[in-house]
Amino acid sequence: MTMEFDLKPLMMTQVSFNGRAKIKIDYNHKTVFLLSYGMHTASYNFVTDEIKIFDLFSATTTRHIKDFVFQITNKECSTKDLQEMIKRTHTREELINATNR
C-alpha cells in the first residue's frame, strides 16, 4: 500500500513546490521516498532509520532534498553535505551529526 502527497517547504518562505516535489510512503517496505519532478531522489526507511540520497540532479531538486532531510532530521544541510552523502546510506543520527560541523 502506498500514499502520495506534495512535500510542503519548511525551510523557506515559499508556500509550495507547485507539485514538483512529492512524498511517497510505501507502507510495505516501511520507506518514505522523495520524488522530485517524478524521479526518486531520496528515501528514508523508518524501521532502520536510514536516509539515502540518490543524486542531486539540479538546483531545484537539491532544494527539495534539503527540505526533505530537514523535515526528517530537523537540521539544515549544505549542498556539499548532500554531495558527500550521495548513494551512501546514512542513519538519521549520522546526518544530524554530519550537519553539526
Give the secondary structure arrangement, pairings included.
Layout: E1 2-6, E2 21-26, E3 31-36, E4 39-45, E5 50-53, H1 59-73, H2 79-85, E6 89-91, H3 92-98
Antiparallel strand pairs: 1-2, 2-3, 3-4, 4-5, 5-6
- Please summarize the sheet with the most strands: 6 strands, antiparallel
Judged by helices, strands and strand pairing, the structural class is: alpha+beta
How far the N terminus sits from the C terminus, by CA atoms, comes to: 39 Å
Q: What is the count of β-strands?
A: 6
Beta fraction: 25-35%
> What oligomeric state best describes the polypeptide chains here?
single chain
Instruction: Name the helicity range.
Output: 25-40%
- Please, how many domains? 1
Radius of gyration: 12 Å
Major sheet: order of its strands? 1-2-3-4-5-6
Question: What is the typical, i.e. mean, pLDDT?
Answer: 88
Number of helices: 3
Shape: globular
Please explain how this structure is put together.
The chain has 101 residues and is of the alpha+beta class. The protein has one domain. The protein is 29% helix and 31% strand. The chain contains 3 helices and 6 strands, in the order E-E-E-E-E-H-H-E-H. A 6-stranded antiparallel sheet has the order 1-2-3-4-5-6. Strand 2 and strand 3 form a beta hairpin.
Considering the chains and any ligands shown, give keywords for the structure:
101 residues, six-stranded antiparallel beta sheet
How would you concisely characterize the structure shown here?
The chain has 101 residues and is an alpha+beta fold.
